[in-house]
Amino acid sequence: MKLLDKISYWLDWIVRKFITIFLIVMTTILALQIIERSVFNGGYVWTDELSRFLMIALVFFGAAVAMRDNSHITVSVLEELKPSLSRWLAPAKWVVMLAYSVILVKYGIDTLDIVGPQQSPNMGLSMGVVYAILPVSGAIMIVHLIARIGKKPSSDNEVKE
Questions:
Q1: How confident is the model at residue 34 (pLDDT cuts 50, 70, 90)?
Q2: What is the DSSP string of 118-150?
Q3: Which residues pair with 119 in a beta bridge?
Q4: What is the domain count for the chain?
Q5: Rounded Cα distance, 116 and 88, in Å
Q6: Domain containing residue 9
Q7: Does residue 160 fall inside a structural domain?
Q8: CA–CA separation, 99 vs 6, rounded Å?
């Protein structure tokens, strides 16, 4: 499991770098578009499309990061009412998250077959590139979940090297 922990750590590190880059690019092109529209009464047709694609990637990569950090939103009402329920609810929660990740990978790959030949209207980018985020983020989530099996909750946030 030590190898899987390191793989999970490095995947998380890489994904966080992509999130940072995507956020910087998205902010820059949206600011450029605002300046173009308000100052020059013009604009670029591709900025809206690219920012939408980057936002989609941010959401799915962010979900993968949250999976590793165990920072997804939870409803803890049942656990607070009866603390003994957490012993039973925790495995069920992990099974549901794993099932979601597997579905994301499976249907993401199936979707790539359909949208691969399509191109985005303004940028001419293959929609397969955009939709590839689904199986990639699902696979990263699966790696993070498997790496966390059998660990105590206190060690979820960081892998010690």
A1: very high
A2: -B-TTT--BHHHHHTHHHHHHHHHHHHHHHHTT
A3: 126
A4: 1
A5: 42
A6: 2-154
A7: no
A8: 23
Is residue 161 assigned to a domain? no
Q: Rounded to two decimals, what is the model's pTM?
A: 0.83
The model's pLDDT over 107-135, given as tens digits with 9 standing for 90+, comes to 999 999 999 899 999 999 999 999 999 99
- How far is residue 143's CA from residue 138's CA, in Å, rounded to a whole number? 9
Residue 105 has, within 13 A of its CA and on its CB side, a CA count of 14
Question: How far is Cα 107 from Cα 115, in angstroms, rounded to an integer?
Answer: 12
**What residues contact 144, with CB distance under 8 A and at least 6 apart?**
8, 11, 12, 64, 67, 68
CB atoms within 10 A of CB 160: 6
CA distance 106 to 9: 24
Across residues 81-102, what is the average pLDDT? 83
